[in-house]
Design a protein that fits this description.
With 290 residues, the chain is an alpha/beta fold. Helix 2 packs across helix 10, helix 6 packs across helix 7 and helix 6 crosses helix 10.
Length: 290
C-alpha cells in the first residue's frame, strides 16, 4: 500500500504557483473572498485560503456580509469586483443563507474570474473540454493527486461515490475527459447494489459525506482510493471532543489498496492549492498579449 501525501503534493503545486507569481511582477494576482455570516467552518476555510495566498504572493481581500444581506446588496458587490481590473479571481464561500440561490449567486461572477468553477458557464466549458475552463478546486485537486502520484488512469474504471455539484459531478467529468480517459460510473445514495458496483472500480473517489462509508468488502485488491470526505465523529480522547475522518474506513481499506489518500492530509490541502493555481491562471490570462 502506498500513501498519497496530499500535503507534499499541495506544496509542490504552491511552490510552482509562487515561482510563476514572481515572474508576473509588478503585476500581483488578486483574489476576492466573499463570506456571508459567521459559520465557524466558513471562517476557518477562508482564513486558511487567505494565509496560503499570502505565502505564494497572491493578494487576498475579504468582504463579510451579515446573513441578512439582500440579493441586491450582494450582487452590487460582485458586479464591482467583476468590473475591477485588479481583481483576477472571486470566491464566494458556501454555504449561503437559504434566502439566496447558490446557483444564481455563483452565476453572477464573470466566468473569467470564476476561480471556484461553480458557475453554469464554467461547468459547461468543463464538460465541453474547452481549454482554460476553471474546474472546481476539490475535483481538480483529485486529478492532480492521481497525476502526480503516477496513477495510470487511461482505460481504467473509476467509480465516483457522490453526485454533488461541488465534487461528484465535476470529478466524473474530469476523469472522463481526454488526458484521464477513464470509464466512469457515478454512484449515489439511491444506487442499487452499490457495494458490488464499487467493488468493480480500479479507482474510487469517495465523496458521499458519510464517515467510514466505504468498507473493505467494497474495495477490490489493488484499487486506488481517493477519499474526499471530511467528517467529524465523537472522540473523547481529543480536546475538541471529536476527530476528523473520511468517507473511507481507512484502517480496514488501506491494506487492500495500491494507493490511498489519508484524511486529514489528503485531498484537503489540494483544494486550497488548486484555488491558488486557478487565481494565478486567471491573472495570467488577463495580461495584455505581447
Amino acid at each position: 500500500m502506498r500513501l498519497i501525501d496530499g500535503n507534499a503534493i499541495a506544496q509542490q503545486v504552491l511552490n510552482e504557483v509562487k515561482a510563476r507569481v514572481s515572474q508576473l511582477a509588478p503585476t500581483v494576482p488578486q483574489v476576492a473572498f466573499v463570506r456571508i455570516g459567521e459559520d465557524p467552518a466558513s471562517v476557518s476555510y477562508v482564513t486558511k485560503k487567505q494565509k496560503t495566498a499570502a505565502e505564494v504572493g497572491i493578494q487576498a481581500t475579504l468582504k463579510v456580509f451579515p446573513e441578512t444581506v439582500t440579493q441586491a446588496e450582494l450582487y452590487a458587490h460582485l458586479d464591482a469586483l467583476n468590473a475591477d481590473k485588479n481583481v483576477h479571481g472571486i470566491l464566494i464561500q458556501a454555504p449561503l443563507p437559504k434566502h439566496l440561490s447558490e446557483t444564481d449567486v455563483f452565476n453572477r461572477v464573470h466566468p473569467s474570474k470564476d476561480v471556484d468553477g461553480f458557475s453554469t458557464q464554467s461547468i459547461g466549458r468543463l464538460i465541453q473540454e474547452i481549454p482554460g475552463a476553471f474546474a472546481a478546486c476539490t475535483p481538480a485537486g483529485v486529478i492532480e493527486l492521481l497525476r502526480r502520484s503516477g496513477v495510470a488512469t487511461a482505460g481504467k474504471h473509476a467509480v465516483v461515490v457522490g453526485r454533488s455539484l461541488i465534487v461528484g459531478k465535476p470529478a466524473a467529468a474530469l476523469l472522463l475527459a481526454k488526458g484521464c480517459d477513464c470509464t466512469v460510473t457515478v454512484a449515489h445514495s439511491r444506487t442499487q447494489n452499490l457495494a458490488a458496483l464499487v467493488r468493480q472500480a480500479d479507482i474510487i473517489v469517495a465523496a458521499i459525506g458519510k464517515p467510514h462509508f466505504i468498507k473493505a468488502d467494497m474495495v477490490k485488491d489493488g484499487a486506488v482510493v481517493i477519499d474526499v470526505g471530511i467528517n467529524r465523529i465523537p472522540d473523547a480522547t481529543k480536546k475538541t471532543g471529536y476527530r476528523i475522518v473520511g468517507d473511507v474506513d481507512f484502517e480496514a481499506v488501506a491494506p487492500k489498496c495500491e494507493a490511498i489518500t489519508p484524511v486529514p492530509g489528503g485531498v484537503g490541502p489540494m483544494t486550497v492549492a488548486m484555488l491558488m493555481k486557478n487565481t494565478l491562471e486567471a491573472c495570467e490570462r488577463a495580461q495584455p498579449r505581447a
